Fold DNA polymerase epsilon subunit B.
Amino acid sequence: MSLDKGKGIIPRPADAFFRRRDLPLQPAGSTSLTSDPFVPLAPSSAPRILAVEISPSALRPLAFRIFTKKHNLTLKSDALTLLCTFIGRRCGSGWRDSGSGEKLLDEIARTWKRNAGAGGILVDGGEALKAVLNGLEVPAAGVGVGVRPRGREWTFDQVNDGGDSQMGDEDMMSTHELPGGGGGGGGRIDPRKYLKVVNAFTQPKWVYNPLKKHFERAAAKPSLHLLLPPPASKTFLFKHRHHTLHQRLLRNDSFLPPTFTRTTKHSSGTTSATSATQSHYIITPISHLLGQHSSTFLLFGILTISPSGHLSLTDPTGSIPLDITYATPVPSDGAYFCPGCFVVVDGQYSEDPMKFLVLTIGMPPCERREVSAEIFGHVDFLGTGVTLDTNSAQNRALRRAEIAVPAKMVFLAEVQLDVDRTFDALRAVFRVYEDDPPLVCVLMGNFIRTPFGGAIVGAGGVQGAVQYKEYWDGLAILLAEFGNLVRNTVFIFVPGDNDPFTATFSGGRSPAVPRENIPDIFVNRVKRVLAASVGAGSESGSAEPDTRGGVWTSNPARISYFSSDIVLFRDDASARFSRHAIRFPNSATNNTTTKGEEDTESMDLDASPPPSPPPPIPASLHLSRKLTKTLLDQAHLSPFPLASRPVLWDYAPHTLALYPLPRIVVIADVGIDRFAVTYEGCHVVNPGKLVVGEGKMAGWVEMEMREGRGTVKEVEI
């Protein structure tokens, strides 16, 4: 380069040649190629799937395993041809090796069962299947199935030009959008849109079919005459419980037969399957005991009291008396065994006299919610549009939204409005949440101390009804003092046994469950206060119409919140279990020794000292674990004889069932202390009595929905 004094550096022709030139802007969609090294290469397009033609014979084994074996569906030939075309265009040549074809078939089967219901067992190639296929797409090989947005449908007459088979299109959604419009576009999610209270009398009735081995929607609705259903409903009540627990029991690892057995070759040249020890347990029906004197069996049935007054075990095939002289409960003092409970019994059969000598007795093992979802994930048990399948795109999106939204639920029980200290306790609790209101506040009965129609109506029915309404008017005045709490919280009211009008006919005894909500004539002022506060708030437009003015539901009831379901039940179950529990003689003698044995043990100086016993469990915690295990193992809220706890025959099979296992169970029992325990992934809480400590403290349970765990709270009144 030459240097000119006072004028700086003068570029030579070679410098001008190697200097980078200003390039013209390329169009956004240009794909023209150039040899200029300074022109950036166009971004590589997403890989495209080359459509292939799949023969029905190649897809039939996989479709049979998914549709028939897993989902109990029958696939017709025209539907199989339609699936071959769809999977060939969507998954390409790697439909078998990558596993995308199997995942797509599984999602198609689940969507079909959600849309068609219990009646859609036969899958044909009609418009129903085409509608299912139009809403599905495969984002990529080995990735879960997503949902096609509205406005663009795939037809079977299209030519595969690459537009529909391209993976990663911008107009395809790889994740499921939240229903209700609350989660799209990255906006703020309103949890009230995903909160729904399910009344027991509007809950869909799903019954288990032991022949088809899946749940079906009941064809006939429950009888309108609640107290006079057909006689077959009573027998079906116990058969349904038996079939549900029996199929759950057989799926337990201890009762599953092995896939392979060891074979032994004899000297004669024959082979036989042998096993050193029994690899699994086998349940024997009671009718098969005849002629098997002095043989040991494992039975499963319900504990009943025979007409002669003896304890018996009953299953659909028969009944047999039990001899519990040497019976040992498993676990020892870990559950309540009472008539009305289903149990697993191990013992010896005797024909003279005919009885079954029980050696061990235990509860049928519980099953986690995730395990049940693998079998019945397609069923929408609550009728809210959310199935049990945790792997579906919709449920995964709902679960992510539930974790992202900070929300709390508060549970209070035994809110006796005819006690002055109750209003002081409510005021203390509401003051805690005035600045940080929870999403839901559940108030559970009894709302009066004495049954409605009893002492409260001693001076006349009209006067008693007026007094009961005045108690609720006092609650309305109290709620009006906390405007911020009422505007941002959904109040749910669950009645107790003393509330009208069921208590009028029970006379203080346990009324039949499920029971209706409190009549509107008593609570209309509370509804006006809640509705006016919600209407005056800035977020009133986000509240669902059925939550304005509070929710007055049945007992029991259920809450559907995103992908979680919560069971609400008010019942003093612990006291009833204690009254009807069976006392086993052998359980008390296991820990007793004679005086001679004690002297012998004390003289054995060479023996090693016994290990120190574990620290004792508090009595309140032991009772809470005992109650929790009994209810969840029985998969029922009221496993009692009908004489001690009557139920409505048509509504009890599905409204009182705890199968599949819910995420949260709120059992309001004032007979034991408040607790919050977790068993097999299900969190069980008991808010206890509101006013405790001789009227000086208020107690309740707060549930953090992000973590799904409850905390026992107390505040001084």
